[in-house]
Amino acid sequence: MADFVLVHGAWHGAWCWKRVLPGLWRAGHRAFAVTLAGVGERAHECHPGITLATHVQDVVAVLEAEELQGCILVGHSYAGMVVTGAADRCPGRIGRLVYLDAKVPRSGEAWGTGHTEAVRAERLARIAEKGWLPPPDPAIFGLAGADRDWVARRLTPQPGGVYLDPLVFDEARWRALPRTFIACTDPALSTLAASRARVHAEGGWTVAEIPTGHDPMISAPDRLQTILLAGA
């Protein structure tokens, strides 16, 4: 039996794993889906003081409360930052890190590091105006029809304080952990181009691809579940 901890990306919540969790449970594993502060069912908690450190602590709290050892910690998209920080805090509780079409940082980088100037300017303008980032149209994640509508109803604003908050961590300790990167290639999200290139340029990674958009837990849950179970 393995323990999975699933951490959603920006604008999402634990709800996004609804199609993946039952399969992990049926296979005899435990799985915990975390909702980060200020989004999902915790959207009422959104405020300017939420930072990357807040979200890291959200995940660390689950690891410690459930007394997990050797768990498979999965971070989607922005949550690549979060799971990296959590693993740095609790390396003994992690058996494998899985970056699901996710940001792969270097120490000192932020979520916004590597974004184009146009993307950064647009996002910073929204944060300056509202204090948070409004959710995008899920069509950019390759979703259409009922899936697009289902996700659109559930996306919530992303706390703006996480965008430029840098993550400082022990890279040598991080590299010692088994790491998987799952690339979603159809369509490939442009803001993750730097992370995909980084993974392919260096060793130490197990790499898998899913020919679907950026939300495979919605658009390709069976294929995603198969990859996750293979890592267990």
How would you describe this structure to a colleague?
It contains nine helices and eight strands. It has 232 residues and is of the alpha/beta class. The strands form two sheets. A six-stranded parallel β-sheet has the order 2-1-3-4-7-8, sandwiched between helices. It has a two-stranded antiparallel sheet with strand order 5-6. The longest helix is centred in the first third of the chain and has 14 residues. β1, α1 and β2 form a beta-alpha-beta unit. α2 packs across α3. The mean pLDDT is 96. It is 36% helix and 17% strand. It has a single domain, classed as 3-Layer(aba) Sandwich (Rossmann fold).
Gyration radius, in Å: 16 Å
How large is the count of helical segments?
A: 9
Structural class: alpha/beta
Instruction: Tell me what portion of residues adopts beta-strand conformation.
Output: 15-25%
Q: Order of helices and strands, N to C?
A: EHEHEHEHEHEHEHEHH
How is the secondary structure organized here?
Blueprint: E1 3-7, H1 21-26, E2 30-34, H2 52-65, E3 71-76, H3 79-89, E4 94-100, H4 117-130, E5 132-133, H5 145-154, E6 158-159, H6 171-175, E7 179-184, H7 193-201, E8 205-210, H8 216-219, H9 221-230
Parallel strand pairs: 1-2, 1-3, 3-4, 4-7, 7-8
Antiparallel strand pairs: 5-6
Helix pairs in contact: 2-3
